[in-house]
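Write out the 3D structure for:
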Amino acid sequence: MGVFGLILIFISLLPGVMSEGWSMKALPRRAISSSCVIIPCSFDFPSHSYTALHGTWFKYWYKWKYTIAYTKDPSYAMATFVGRAKIIGDLEGKNCSVRIDSLRAEDSDVYYFYVDAEGYTDHTFTEPVRLQVLDVPDKPVIVLPKGLQEGTPAHIICKCLYTCPDNHPNLTWSELLTSSVSSITETGGEVSAVLTLNPSFKHHGQSLSCTCDYPQTNHRVVNSVTLSVKCSPRNTSVRMTLENGKMISLSCSSDGNPAVHNFTWFKISQGKVTNLVLAGQTITVPYGFEEEISYYCESTSILGSSQSLPIRIPTECRDSSKWTVGLLTAGIMLSVFLAGIFIFICVRKRKTATEERVSGTSDIALTPRPLSVKHQGKQNVLITEPRNTNRDTTSEGDTPAPWGLSEGAVGGDAGHGNPDKPDNLLYANPQVFRVPSGDGSVHREEETEFTQIRFKQN
């Protein structure tokens, strides 16, 4: 082709090189419904003389361009954007930033920028800018350092969405010991708060939260993280468990992050410490015998180690069979004692019931039987069972012999045949009668009524 042909090709490429001088930079935005958004924008174009610069923001609608903001004629825009969208950047300073107020869900779209340099040319930038309108703000983003380590100060960052100067979010941290908010910055559509923390083992596993409040839209969003603080082992302790036979299980536990990776056991006997050269969280040892024996463990991680307090093998655990026999004997003795008390109570109740029954049946039964006694010249004549009460007055001083008649003092033994058994006691109630005789004289008679009292013995 020769040198001349190469020069022609170089000249033909110059317009293309000059067109590459047009450029624009704008960041996509996520904004909140009912709030506002500012889309920052900057552009550049080839150095050339022009009389004025005008800019236009637009979006496509079925391949048609619809203007939302125009610097030359602000009223020339879509009806839904009139009064809500305007270019706030200084075009002469190559700033094409735009602001949209009272955002709606349908405002989510892709937008383009067009520049018109009067007296020179116009140019449409093909780089799109995406806008997303959210009903609810994004949750805060919490940025933790790569690793929190005990004793090493750390900075924790919380970021909240921030696209509108009129709706500045307020950031608050949950309270933590040895922490403070050091700074708040605004960059790239976000507001950030930095928390300075001096981590300790007390922070390990705790929850840290950041809250963003938006006063214009009354939104509140919260996010939280669980802190993981690296710390050396601590709170090392030994737990003892009695097993069957004559063995004891010892288990070592410890707090630390990262977790303990090695356990070492030691034995104390007669004041001498012996390394058992046993590695494991749980070991099994025999009961102590004559001397007192104690054990302790040491937990180790990559950050350090920690020892537990010694735990002594109790002396009462030296012979478990004796304990078993002793407990069994005590149980038997207690059972016998309780049984004796129960039997005594039962016998006592039965005896009391019997005495009450005997006392009730030994009461005196009184059986009254009327008896009569006639006194004619003789005193104290007893009639036990009178058969005939007719009086014979034919002769003075003679009395017909009644059935079953016996003599004796009133109230004395009734029945002289058996003086040891006074079966009947008679009590008299004398009455005096004057009875006329056949010769005209009057004879005096006494009639006494008796009540017979019989004692019945059960």
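The longest helix spans residues 320-361.
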